[in-house]
Amino acid sequence: MLTKLDETLRHQTSSTFDHVYTSDHRFFDRYWFGAYDPEGKAHLVLGLATYVNMDVMDGFVAIQKPDGNGKILQHNFRVSRALRPNHDDSSVGPLSVEILEPFKKIRLRFDDPKQELKVDLEWEALLPPAEEGHHFNRANGRAFQDYHRYNQVGKVNGELVLHGETLAVRDWSGGRDHSWGVRSQVGGYEPATNALGDKVMAAFGYIFTWLTFTAGDVGGYIQCQLLGNGMVIYTDGVIGNPATGATAKVVKVDFQAKFHEDTRIVSHLVTTATLDNGKTLVLEMEPITGYWSMDGTGYDWGWDDGKGLGFNRGDYCEERDVFDITHPEEVARADGRRYKPGHREAPMSIRATIDGATHPGTGHQVFVVSGQSTYFGIK
Q1: Residue 375 belongs to a domain
Q2: Does the N-terminal peptide bond of residue 85 adopt cis geometry, omega within 30 degrees of 0?
Q3: Burial of 198 (0-12, 13-18, 19+ CB in 10 A)
Q4: Which of 239, 293, 299, 308 is such that its CA lies 20 to 30 A from the CA of 25?
Q5: Does the residue 6 lie in any domain?
Q6: Domains in the chain: how many in total?
Q7: Do the Cβ atoms of 264 and 369 come closer than 8 Å?
């Protein structure tokens, strides 16, 4: 089937753009955006993705907001549709992403006919996008992951309307990524040969951290993956000055972390990044509000059917629910069930120190400790 991209001179295979290089059902192509209020009135994450081999486009919006009565609530909206024949349309039901200027300006909208949520935001870049290194590894002979991603920081302006309450968004801190390829937990099921990864995690433990942030004259992203004993297996990151555009690569990262008592949820984090220009950046971070329960967006096999992102749910499907995320580790669903999801992320208040100057800022921190971790003293 021809799409608009087939009118360009960008083909890289002998097929049309509605096909990809692999038949792996987990092939995806996803936008992810975050917007974080430094004052903690509300925060947003939003995503939109295609899964060509599953004939699916799906997306989500989640709003994290204190309810005024001592609770922190996460309002989740998940939408899914058949990708074909509307392959060129970057929208699912009320959710849409419009690229106004590539790598510079993007319009994010969610106009809910049920009047529960309205989003109209403009995401504007402060630094150029930074590519991560290619992610590829095998598990028992099969490509476990084979994907690419770039990250970018910016500012967000516009308006949110949640259950009749209007929130003005004025220069909120923004982070985004765009990733594509093959990853786990996509397309409804994971092939059984992934058992090797489970054995490695059980034996050594695993730590994953990913951050986008802006703080005065500095901003960027940092990613680090470690085994539980602290052995680094992947480091990446680019730090820049939004005013001058100057950038430097992250070459080494060290962490000092405190956790909420008897949990794996970080309460205070100091990240020290060594840059390839010889400078050192120190980020001291604490959560502004609550910790995202990412299954509310469809990650971690979210959705009510337990099939997660990219599963084919027919011509159109939508779900909405509200989580109580007041407790740092335990999440309460609307039906009263309580559980402890392993994948937590948080809007962070940041003090960034570089070149002898300290700047206040805001960011989005993923910090996941799985299995044992002698590095952090977790069994």
Answers
A1: no
A2: yes
A3: exposed
A4: 293
A5: no
A6: 1
A7: yes
Q: What's this model's pTM, rounded to 2 decimal places? A: 0.94
What's the pLDDT at 201? 62
CATH number, domain at 183? 2.40.370.10
Return d(Cα 264, Cα 260) in angstroms, integer: 7
Question: What residues contact residue 205 under an 8 Å CB cut-off, 6+ apart?
Answer: 227, 228, 229, 369, 370, 371, 372, 373, 374, 378
On whether residue 231 sits in a domain, the answer given is: yes
Residue 204 is inside which H or E element, if any?
Answer: helix 195-204
Q: Which residue has the tokens 């480091």?
A: 235
Task: Give Rg (Cα) of the chain.
Answer: 20
Task: Give the tens place of pLDDT for each residue, 286-308.
Answer: 999 999 999 999 999 999 999 99
Measured CA angle at 319 (ends 339, 210), to 5 deg? 55
Asked if residue 255 is part of any domain, the answer here is: yes
Domain that holds residue 307: 23-370
Backbone phi, psi, residue 94, to 5°: -80, -5
Residues 370 and 379: their CA atoms lie apart, in Å, by 10
